[in-house]
Amino acid sequence: MVLKILLLFIFSSSLFAQNLEYLYRMEKYEDVVLETDGSEETQDLEYQALALERTGNLNAAINIYLKLIKKEFAEENKIIINAIKEKSSTIELQTDKTETLIYYFGNLANLFTKKYQSFNRGMSKRKLRALYKRAYLFISILKLIDDYGSEADILLAKLNKKRDEMSAYELKSNNYITSSIISWQDKMNFAYKDGRDKSKILNTSYGNCTGYGKVWKSDHREYFIDGCFILGFSTISKISGDLQLSDSRVSVTGGLFNIGTLFSLKSPDLAIGPSFNILSVKGNWDYPDDTELSPTQYTRYGLTFNTKWYLKRLAVISSFGRIFKNESVFFGVGIIYNL
Amino acid sequence: MKSLTSRDFFIINLRTHGFGLPLTIEDFGRDNQSTAYIDMMADLNLVMKFFSDRLIFSGSIGYIPTPKALENSTDDEEVINYISREAYVGIRPFASIGLYAGLMDKVYGVRIPEHVAYSRSITNLSHNDQSVGVQIHYVKNMFEIGLNSFIGNTVQDESLRQQGNSAKIDYLISNKGSVGVSVLKSKSEFLDIYMNAFHFKTSVGKGTSVLGEFGEVKKTAVQKSEIDTTSYALAQANVNLDRGIFLINTVEYLKETSNDFRFRFGPGLQVFPAQRVEFRFDLYNTRTFSEDFATKDTIDFLTQLHLWF
Q: Does A71 share its domain with A144?
């Protein structure tokens, strides 16, 4: 009787295993999971883990392999943990099922790498770092227990490639000093105080703008904010009509504030993009007592298109655009130095 | 040298370049805006290469428009509308050395297609300034050296032909870029020219580059012995925005003998909608900084069409 029951059990488990293999090969992964649900048999759990991985349920698959290691290789697991803690480069395992152990840890390393690879830019940096550490840990274990180690190297390469890709999108902040030659043009109102005549007068200004800024930069995009003090010169002239005035190299002071974003399309070393600007200037022009000139001081807003070319810590910048209500264009050429 | 093969014989390149530069808008967006269609140049160029590019013949027939000043002229002065911009033979006995003789561009500075650039106009190296001469081109390891001896363009009056020598040395600082210097000295019956420049070219990622040239030109009127010194600078970024679309950002500076100087900004777009077809759209804003006057900016909008066959 006992023999009959034993034969029936062996026969049925063999049939059951064959059935699982058949379902798995037919890619009926959900059926495999249903069939093995609640089972504690090693072979069932192995099939279940494989099917879960195929259905994208990586966490559940990981838990099964961890469970299998605890169940089948409790002693070896302790030895491995100690070896990793002591940063040992060799390990001696007391098991004749090394192949199975490598299989379990290999799958764990693979699953954690896959999980890390599936992360996108919206994930928190803390979670990403933690997952990288876990994936790295299981790859290290695989390297330790598998003398050939080729799969570990492939997984590590995949893991680091993804890490570099993520790092390229990570915004890193940096302070910088900036110095540019800038130029703008505007028209001023020039009139007799008694109102008998009035005219527009053209003003061309240029000067140096030196200041400080902060940039948040990844390999693909950057956001920046900076401000600088303007020390410059202005030339105004109107030499036609009754009302004439000419005054050159007049001292102009002021400030320029920029906030913008730049995009790097093909290389992180060259970025282009728009910025919003506030220009505030004040000049000390000479004009006859019976006339008035305005505005001699103003704050205006603008939009510029910028190009930035990084040469390690130094960058060459150019801006070209409009300060609204001003005449013609605003432009600047200069350098920044990343601190 | 290899014997002639049928494969060599049929390496013939036929192209037109700069076929019409049709639209120039001066004072773009202003009340006094003026629009002109100017055919700046049109060239039909034939290049034949033999013995695996060791023997090269190149020749072109080009159109040169009548200068505006002469368009309504009643003078009997003959206006030449067709010239050759290239007619030379080159041999490269070894990969590292080439010898060229005939009519060609002078060896100097960074060669960019914008012939309105100060680095080409102020140096007399523009689209109609080729000269008859001999050139040696030597490339070895990190160096590229060009030497040129020229006797002027035979289309010109003999008294106006600039005769002299030029040299250019480029040093490859990495596989991404080079720095170099150029020098040119020439003279005619009326004018001595000496100029030198520092230049660089660098690639910044796929399809994107930055180049620059900083130079000085001294022109001495022989009879007056007065030296006019002009400084110029050019920086140009060429950014690949998308497949076949490039943003060109040019900044130029020019300072002539007086204390006045000019800045020119030229954002532009270069589009290749199909093979062998190129459109260029350029906006040039030129600002003059004068000690005495505030002058209105000059704003030009240029479109160009280039076809290669």
A: yes
- Using a CB–CB cutoff of 8 Å, tell me whether A274 touches chain B: no
ipTM: 0.73
Tokens 């599936």 correspond to A118
Residue B72: what are its φ and ψ, rounded to 5°? -110, 20
Q: How far is it, in rounded angstroms, from Cα B253 to Cα B215?
A: 10
Chain B environment of A309 (Cβ under 8 Å): 204, 210, 237
Contacts of A248 in chain B (CB under 8 A): 290-293
Judged by CB atoms closer than 8 Å, whether chains meet at B239 and A307 is answered as yes
Q: Report how far residue B6's alpha carbon sits from residue A330's, in angstroms, rounded to the nearest whole number.
A: 59
Cα separation values, A28 from A21, A24, A34, A38, A107, Å: 10, 6, 10, 18, 20
Query: Residue B229 belongs to what domain range?
Result: 11-307
Which domain does A116 fall in, by range?
A: 57-169
Q: Is residue B101 part of a domain?
A: yes
Q: Are residues A303 and A180 in the same domain?
A: yes
- Minimum distance, in Å, between the CA of residue A162 and any CA atom of chain B: 21
CB spacing of B205 vs A329 below 8 angstroms: no
pTM over 0.90: no
What are the Cα distances from residue B23, in Å, to A266, B28, B34, B265? 31, 12, 11, 19
Measured distance CA(A260)–CA(A278) in Å, rounded:
12
Mutate to test the interface with A, among B30, B206, B251 (most CBs of A within 10 A): B251
Give me the sign of the Cα torsion angle A203, A208, A214, A219: positive
**Exposed, middle or buried, A122 (CB in 10 Å: 0-12/13-18/19+)?**
exposed
Which pLDDT tens digit goes with each residue over A297-328? 999 999 999 999 888 889 999 999 999 988 88
* Residue B1 within any structural domain of the chain: no
CATH of residue B63: 2.40.160.10
pLDDT tens digits, residue range B46-55? 888 888 888 9
Statement to judge: residues A323 and A250 lie in one domain = yes
Mean pLDDT of B47-75: 79
For chain A, what is the radius of gyration of the CA atoms? 36
Number of folded domains in chain A?
2
Burial class of residue A266 in the structure, from the number of CB atoms within 10 Å of its CB (0-12 exposed, 13-18 middle, 19+ buried): middle
